[in-house]
């Protein structure tokens, strides 16, 4: 079965020729034509006339045949007519006079038709008429002055003084008109036809030069110039034909009104400057200016004055239109009963309508600069802003949240969120808020409005507000059958874009509903969290939660299959338990389950309560730990087992609590990373680490500092590093910044910051390498210098051949990329010996040295040699 021939590509596709074709073809043809014209200079007069006539006829034919396939057929037919009239007029004038150069006078009519052709090629006028008309007028004046300056020394020969004088007067005018028309075409044409307009302007410039040369040759000043008129004319004809060939039709895109560009706006002023310079040059060369020059100067000044007047009136009209438009839309916003709020990237209010006063009791002017999250319920903050509303400028998302009025009452709103950060007129997130609080002082609430305020818009399930109402109602039923609360947390949804995420939530909801029993009650509390009010004991709720967790797995979405994981937290619901406390207990149990790993289900108990109380205490005390001198740095050496010396130390943070004693970094570092204190803490660690190592006697010892995700993502990493290096005097090459693989995947801004640090000389290390998304292709394009192999690779490495193979693979990967590999977590002599025999050179861990206090570093108590068994000989062991 034969396939049908492919259809011809549309004109818009054919028009997309490469830029080199647009430039190369005119250049090649122009050079070839000019060379041919020069070769014909020595030919007999009859041959020259015949070749000129043939070229003109060919040009007319090309323009007529190609006009129907162009963007402006009528204009190109006028151009063909102008070329024909130019050649015919030149031939007729030569019958009257024997001077070959007199053909320039016969071409005047053709030049005037060229002006008409250029105007017809332009098509419909758009914006910027005043700028363009005045630019054309000033361009004509400048061209007239230029040609008159060139023709000033001309002396008409005997017998032809009358015709020559006419040529001296007429030719500058026609040259000025055609050049101005071509310049006008270039300044107003569609940008996609800008190349065509440039060729026509070049053609008219060449034709203007040929006409000027012809008049000079007519006057024999100097006579040798006559040989260049024919090649120049031929080049102009070829350029016009090439422009016609390239002027293919375009689609309608961009055919609407366009704002005036800076080139068009400045064109009148540029032409005025050129005209003034030419006038001063003529006066300087001739010593005076005749009446024509003075008249041209006066006309030019009047044109500039008219241009300024028109621009002033246009500016006044546009300003009035803008103010009227602003007033119109401001009135609409003010009269709207629903508040409109615009937020910046930090979720701070940049604009608020007057209706915000009714919703929150805040004056719109006082609200500007405040963070909207200050008035949003903390349980609803993630639901409102946790997931972006989608690609900037596309669609909208409806979110439900509770906001606090200044009188302390909570209001329930539905906010339509639109991301217009890429819109230069807005530059932020726009919230269209509607108060859907289902409570009125008198009478019952509207049932439809009440249902809307208690329903999740994505899944159709009851939302968090409905869950609170349900728990309150169960509390009022004292003495009823036992019930429990289970909260299900699903991870993996954040990576899905808008509609795919919504489809995944609906798919998960369908799976959960199939697992529920008859009396169980399901709600969606926030992005990836679901809650179930379950009948029966807490043990029954644990079984139900385990079944719900098990039903979450791989899900097919519009974005493709996605692997989801879930954990569960369970608590009992006694009659006297406040709904807020019940939700807090479930959140604690869920947090504990997440720490245990995917698929876990934990019940709330006293141990969890004590653990949460301890975390709350540490979180509160951490704010004053830095000021109270409770935080300090210790330094663990990294040993080069080949050179038998310490090459760097890693700065590690320690906390000695005045009551609880030594706090494990695994316990307080996650708390610090969740608090705003982490940025201040990160700067302090950088400054202390650099200052400590800079004061040591070893001039080659480097220091590695871990940086937090918030410090990197907040854009403060580069300034913090520069400040630490400047304050300590530590050379940039002795600082190593360590960060995790996930941060390297975060954004292009992170990559730019790391690239800047490397350019300064700071080295970048990937910490815990092998636990994230590393691959060879991924590593090649990243600005990194060191790989730190995670200690998980060493679990059982003495007897596990597969783990030994992994260790060798990481070493080979680093070597192939030219990146040194540091193995951390080396705790036994056997591991040390095994890794050294594999070829690993840089090792870190208790088998070499424990973390050292600052005093030990200053006294030089770190590993300086490696004995035969591979164990560091250091007093710090």
From TrEMBL:
Nucleotide-binding listed as a keyword: no
A Pfam family recorded for this sequence: PAS_4
Domain GGDEF as annotated: residue spans: 481-606
Keyword field contains Lipoprotein: no
PROSITE patterns: EAL, GGDEF, PAS
InterPro entries with a match to the protein in the record: Biofilm_reg_signaling, EAL_dom, EAL_sf, GGDEF_dom, Nucleotide_cyclase, PAS, PAS-like_dom_sf, PAS_4
Keyword entries, A-Z: Membrane, Transmembrane, Transmembrane helix
Span of domain EAL: 615-865
Transmembrane segments: 49-66, 78-97, 103-121, 133-151, 163-186, 198-219, 260-282, 294-312
Domain PAS: 325-380
Protein name from the UniProt record: EAL domain-containing protein
The species this protein was found in: Geodermatophilus sabuli
């Amino acid at each position: 079965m034969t396939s049908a021939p492919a259809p011809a590509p549309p004109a818009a596709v054919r028009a997309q020729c490469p830029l080199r074709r647009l430039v190369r073809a005119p250049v090649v043809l122009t050079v070839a034509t000019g060379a041919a014209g020069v070769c014909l200079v020595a030919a007999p007069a009859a041959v020259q006339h015949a070749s000129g006539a043939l070229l003109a006829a060919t040009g007319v034919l090309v323009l007529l045949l190609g006009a129907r396939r162009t963007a402006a057929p009528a204009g190109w037919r006028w151009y063909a007519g102008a070329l024909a009239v130019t050649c015919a007029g030149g031939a007729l004038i030569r019958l009257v006079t024997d001077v070959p150069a007199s053909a320039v006078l016969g071409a005047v009519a053709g030049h005037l038709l060229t002006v008409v052709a250029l105007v017809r090629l332009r098509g419909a006028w758009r914006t910027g008429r005043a700028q363009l008309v005045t630019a054309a007028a000033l361009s004509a004046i400048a061209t007239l002055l230029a040609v008159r300056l060139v023709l000033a020394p001309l002396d008409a020969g005997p017998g032809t003084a009358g015709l020559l004088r006419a040529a001296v007067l007429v030719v500058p005018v026609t040259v000025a008109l055609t050049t101005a028309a071509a310049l006008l075409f270039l300044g107003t044409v569609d940008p996609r036809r800008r190349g065509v307009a440039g060729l026509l302007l070049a053609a008219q410039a060449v034709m203007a030069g040929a006409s000027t040369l012809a008049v000079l040759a007519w006057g024999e000043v100097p006579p040798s110039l006559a040989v260049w008129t024919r090649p120049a004319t031929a080049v102009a004809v070829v350029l016009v034909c090439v422009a016609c060939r390239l002027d293919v039709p375009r689609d309608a895109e961009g055919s609407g009104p366009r704002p005036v560009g800076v080139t068009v706006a400045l064109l009148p002023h540029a032409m005025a400057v050129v005209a003034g310079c030419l006038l001063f040059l003529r006066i300087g060369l001739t010593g005076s200016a005749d009446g024509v020059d003075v008249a041209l100067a006066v006309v030019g000044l009047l044109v500039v004055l008219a241009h300024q007047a028109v621009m002033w009136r246009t500016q006044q009209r546009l300003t009035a239109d803008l103010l009227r438009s602003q007033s119109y839309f401001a009135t609409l916003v003010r009269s709207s009963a629903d508040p409109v709020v615009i937020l910046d990237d930090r979720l701070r209010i940049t604009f608020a309508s007057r209706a915000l006063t009714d919703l929150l009791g805040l004056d719109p002017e006082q609200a500007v600069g405040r963070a909207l999250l200050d008035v949003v319920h903390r349980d609803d903050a993630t639901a409102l802003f946790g997931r972006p509303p989608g690609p900037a400028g596309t669609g909208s998302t409806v979110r439900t949240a509770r906001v606090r009025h200044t009188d302390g009452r909570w209001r329930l709103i539905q906010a339509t969120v639109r991301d217009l950060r890429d819109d230069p007129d807005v530059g932020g997130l726009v919230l269209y808020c509607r108060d859907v609080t289902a409570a009125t002082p008198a009478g019952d609430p509207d049932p439809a409005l009440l249902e809307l305020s208690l329903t999740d818009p994505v899944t159709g399930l009851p939302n968090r507000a409905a869950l609170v109402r349900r728990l309150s109602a169960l509390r009022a039923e004292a003495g009823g059958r036992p019930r429990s609360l289970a909260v299900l947390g699903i991870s993996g949804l954040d990576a899905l874009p808008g509609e795919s995420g919504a489809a995944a939530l609906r798919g998960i909801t369908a799976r959960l509903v199939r697992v529920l029993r008859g009396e169980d009650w399901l709600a969606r509390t926030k992005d990836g969290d679901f809650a179930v009010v379950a009948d029966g004991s807490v043990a029954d709720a644990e079984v139900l939660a385990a079944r719900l967790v098990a039903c979450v797995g791989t899900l097919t979405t519009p974005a493709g299959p996605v692997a989801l994981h879930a954990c569960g937290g369970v608590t009992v619901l006694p009659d006297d338990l406040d709904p807020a406390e019940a939700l807090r207990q479930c959140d604690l149990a869920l947090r504990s389950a997440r720490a245990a790993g995917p698929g876990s289900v934990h019940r709330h108990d006293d141990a969890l309560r004590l653990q949460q109380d301890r975390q709350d205490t540490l979180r509160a005390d951490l704010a004053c730990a830095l000021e109270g001198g409770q935080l300090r740095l210790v330094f663990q050496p990294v040993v080069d087992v080949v050179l038998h010396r310490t090459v760097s130390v890693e700065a590690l943070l320690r906390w000695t609590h005045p009551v609880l004693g030594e706090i494990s970094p695994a316990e307080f570092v996650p708390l610090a990373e969740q608090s705003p204190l982490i940025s201040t803490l990160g700067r302090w660690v950088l400054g202390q680490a650099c200052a400590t190592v800079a004061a040591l006697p070893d001039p080659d010892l480097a220091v590695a500092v871990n940086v937090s995700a918030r410090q990197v993502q907040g854009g403060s990493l580069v300034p913090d590093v520069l400040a630490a290096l400047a304050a300590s005097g530590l050379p940039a090459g002795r600082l190593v910044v360590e960060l995790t693989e996930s941060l390297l995947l975060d954004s292009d801004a992170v990559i730019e910051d790391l690239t800047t640090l490397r350019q300064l000389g700071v080295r970048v290390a990937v910490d815990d390498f092998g636990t994230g998304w590393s691959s060879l292709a991924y590593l090649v394009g990243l600005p990194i210098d060191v790989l730190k192999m995670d200690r998980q690779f060493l679990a059982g490495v003495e007897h596990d051949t597969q783990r030994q193979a992994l260790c060798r693979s990481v070493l080979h990967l680093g070597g192939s990329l030219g990146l040194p590999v540091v193995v951390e977590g080396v705790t036994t002599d056997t591991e040390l010996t095994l890794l050294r025999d594999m070829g690993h050179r840089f090792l870190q861990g208790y088998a070499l040295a424990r973390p050292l206090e600052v005093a030990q570093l200053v006294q030089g108590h770190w590993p300086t040699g490696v004995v035969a068994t591979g164990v560091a000989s250091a007093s710090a062991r």
